[in-house]
TrEMBL record:
Any Pfam family the entry gives: ELFV_dehydrog_N
Positions with a binding annotation for NAD(+): T200, N239
Family: Belongs to the Glu/Leu/Phe/Val dehydrogenases family.
Single GO term (MF): glutamate dehydrogenase (NAD+) activity
UniProt name for this protein: Glutamate dehydrogenase
Keyword set, alphabetical order: NAD, Nucleotide-binding, Oxidoreductase
Annotated positions for site Important for catalysis: D154
Every Glutamate/phenylalanine/leucine/valine/L-tryptophan dehydrogenase C-terminal domain range: 193-475
Signal sequence extent: none
Taxonomic source organism: Daejeonella lutea
InterPro entries for the chain: Aminoacid_DH-like_N_sf, Glu/Leu/Phe/Val/Trp_DH, Glu/Leu/Phe/Val/Trp_DH_C, Glu/Leu/Phe/Val/Trp_DH_dimer, Glu/Leu/Phe/Val_DH_AS, Glu_DH, NAD(P)-bd_dom_sf, NAD_bind_Glu_DH
The keyword Cell cycle is assigned to this record: no
Classification via PROSITE patterns: GLFV_DEHYDROGENASE
Length: 478
């Protein structure tokens, strides 16, 4: 990979790494440097601090919301709750959101938030105070709203936090009809959407299934096409990792390794997700699981075991120049944001591996967030208006065919054909179509230019071009 103007910056910076990938891809586009600079830069970085009551005193919390690009509104991206969060990280994650949304044609600019706490060290009441106060700070500066900036879950946050955000925003904006579209990833009972919780992991599994379905690409790796029997190691068993394992298993893959914070386990025969999950719930650790052939107290050793596909689904900077030589996988599916550093990515590509890039691989979450936002703005659940209509039309059709052919279907066949689509089925269909279509869009860009070295570069080319068109069409005002 050619060294870029931002390479020096990237030694210590996640945002620098993202810029380095961007600059490498930009050479395959024809946009003027000024426009590229506008696309690459973070438009607004809001850093703030606020106090919460704790014990007999109070504690000051550091927080951020970064809106990377306003080429489309609203901006969109999760909120990370982590004691390691910092400004550079939130900027990088916001930038990735811009490129991610562009790849999957979700009409949002990119944003991300961060709250610098370890959520495990706070009571639920304290977490609620922090989340509500964070929301109020965003409201004060116009950094949240259904048409402005729409947060969602990320590492360390989930449906519960999104409910608190929605309730705070709604309370502060009485009568605002679209208020519930101010945040996505809400529980179903609070105007969320069926399938959002599983969406990122489901999308990751679909992206991998699509990648391994291309026989020509698998042949180059010395692998058979298809997921059946493929050996997979997953790092992180949180929201994204858990559902990635669930759907990969459903699609026929074998989960041979799981790495968590406290260590890693390996079994060449494969793991049952629920057995491992329940063991961890009961004992507090994945270590000590009786069906594991090997276990590692140093979790990162788990990444280096024999497998076909490695899925980092925890945090950034997991595959680096220090461990890349020991990675055995031929396919890396970046379920986490930024798990591979530019140096490690170059080494893997030179070795002939396929890297399914984060900005595409984990885009299922924001895709279904988009559906949730649409549902909130239209104030009606998907399928509500047409489900029964569709069923009646199908019923008439089946009756007519039965009458004219003399063939009678059994009850199972009838209900399968007649049934109208539920919200979950529509969401999953939209998600699957988006992931499959986007994979081939990126792959074709790569295939069309032999100088484009990776799916990541192709993905960046695709998003840079899309964002550039938006900026050019908008013009500059005043
Ligand atoms: N939640 C979502 O919808 C989306 C999340 N992502 C990305 O996916 C990644 C994971 O996010 P979530 O699953 O939501 O977070 P989560 O908080 O639900 O789970 C993360 C899991 O990773 C584990 N973990 C942390 N450090 C680890 C390490 N060094 N080794 C092994 N395991 C480790 C944690 O113990 C936890 O179980 C993040 O990079 C996030 O930005 C990307 C797109 C959407
Ligand atoms: O669902 C969303 O809006 C964003 C999820 C997210 O933070 C991400 O894709 O990294």
């Amino acid at each position: 990979m050619a060294k870029s103007i931002d390479a020096a910056h990237s030694e210590t910076s996640f945002f620098g790494d993202v810029c380095q990938f961007f600059d490498h891809a930009a050479q395959f586009t024809s946009h003027p440097e000024g426009l590229l600079d506008q696309i690459r830069s973070c438009n607004s970085v809001y850093r703030f601090r606020f106090p919460i009551r704790r014990g007999n005193g109070f504690e000051v919390i550091d927080a951020w919301r970064v809106e990377h690009s306003h080429h489309k509104s609203p901006t969109k991206g999760g909120i990370r709750y982590s004691e390691m969060v910092n400004e550079d990280e939130v900027m990088a994650l916001a930038a990735l959101m811009t490129y991610k949304c562009a790849i999957v044609n979700v009409p949002f600019g990119g944003a991300k938030g961060g709250i610098k706490i370890n959520p495990k060290e706070y009571t639920v009441a304290e977490l609620e105070n922090i989340t509500r106060r964070y929301t109020v700070e965003l409201i004060k500066k116009n950094f949240i709203g259904p048409g402005i900036d729409v947060p969602a879950p990320d590492y360390g946050s989930g449906e519960r936090e999104m409910s608190w955000i929605a309730d705070t925003y709604q309370t502060m904006n009485p009568g605002q009809l679209d208020a519930l579209g101010c945040v996505t990833g809400k529980p179903l009972a609070l105007h969320g959407i069926a399938g959002r919780k599983e969406a990122t992991g489901r999308g990751v599994a679909i992206s991998i299934r699509e990648c391994v379905s291309v026989a020509e690409d698998m042949q180059k790796l010395g692998l058979e096409a298809g997921l059946s029997g493929k050996r997979v190691i997953v790092q992180g068993m949180g929201n994204v990792g858990y559902y990635t394992i669930k759907y990969l298993t459903e699609f026929g893959a074998t989960i041979v390794g799981i790495c968590e914070f406290e260590g890693a386990i390996y079994s060449s025969e494969g793991f049952d997700l629920d057995e491992v999950f329940n063991h961890r719930k009961t004992t507090g650790s994945i270590l000590g699981f009786s069906k594991a052939h090997k276990e590692f107290k140093n979790s990162s050793e788990g990444l280096e075991q024999e497998c076909d596909i490695l899925v980092p689904a925890a945090l950034e900077n997991q595959l680096t120049e220090h461990n890349v030589a020991n990675i055995k996988a031929k396919i890396i599916a970046e379920a986490a944001n930024g798990p591979t550093t530019p140096d490690a990515a170059s080494a893997l590509i030179e070795r002939g591996c396929i890297l399914i890039p984060d900005m595409y691989c984990n885009a299922g979450g924001v895709t279904v967030s988009y559906f949730e936002w649409l549902k909130n703005l239209s104030h009606v659940a998907f399928g509500r208006m047409d489900k029964r209509y569709e069923e009646n039309a199908n019923l008439n059709l089946v009756n007519t065919i039965e009458k004219s052919t003399g063939v009678t279907l059994d009850a199972t066949q009838r209900s399968m054909i007649i049934k109208g689509a539920s919200e979950l089925e529509l969401v999953n269909s939209g998600l699957e179509d988006t992931m499959i279509r986007s994979y081939h869009e990126i792959r074709e860009i790569k295939m069309e230019n032999s100088r484009i070295d990776s799916l990541r570069t192709a993905a960046f080319v695709s998003s840079i071009n899309k964002v550039a068109v938006s900026y050019m069409n908008m013009g500059i005002w005043p």
